[in-house]
């Protein structure tokens, strides 16, 4: 009888203060992040792509950074050399004083194919419960993070969409040393998404190529939807055909 009363009291305490009884796990955080990414009406982030390339005795490093805002189907991308804004089916491109400003009507599908730096659940590999075995949830104050080691089959579709254009169609590509690190705040908001891997292939013209790649999103103001609107001087943009 006493044991039943104790169990009942614990259950009541958990209902009254669910947060104190709930225990986040890497799998629960991962699943929630996938769902939240599809349900979110928008986000603001810094997107970073780093590539260390080697071809024979030659090596080269490249880093591309851009600020990305998304509000529904409207998006804004800011880079060092140009700004792109897509609002209500029209893309505005400011390429600086030398190149000028242009605008064109463009379907959402075509815009995403060419320029879309956005995220949804397709950027999260399809994983099973076994993939999270022995994965440690690290805590540093209010920040939590974990790292997953992945197989090539888990990330091939994601990477092909990002860097696949650099490889000739039909080329066999080897992916290795693949890891995905996700970082969350105390409210389970995703703060940082970092996918790292090695990519190697051989092509007739360039020979053997290898690249260390990191694709990263650093999210800002989680939970808030940024404003995305056409440029104030949109009327001054020159009309272009797609």
Low confidence ranges:
2-21
The helical percent reads 10-25%
Strand runs, count: 12
Query: Largest beta sheet: what is the strand line-up?
Result: 7-8-9-10-11-1-2-3-4-5-6-12
- The secondary-structure class comes to alpha+beta
Task: Write structural notes for this entry.
By secondary structure, the chain is an alpha+beta fold. It contains six helices and twelve strands. The chain has helices at residues 2-16, 18-21, 26-39, 96-99, 108-114, 152-163; strands at residues 42-55, 58-71, 74-78, 83-87, 90-94, 101-105, 138-140, 143-150, 173-184, 190-203, 207-220, 238-239. Strands 7-8-9-10-11-1-2-3-4-5-6-12 form a twelve-stranded mixed sheet. A hairpin with a 4-residue loop joins strand 3 and strand 4. The longest helix has 15 residues, at 2-16. It starts with a helix and ends with a strand.
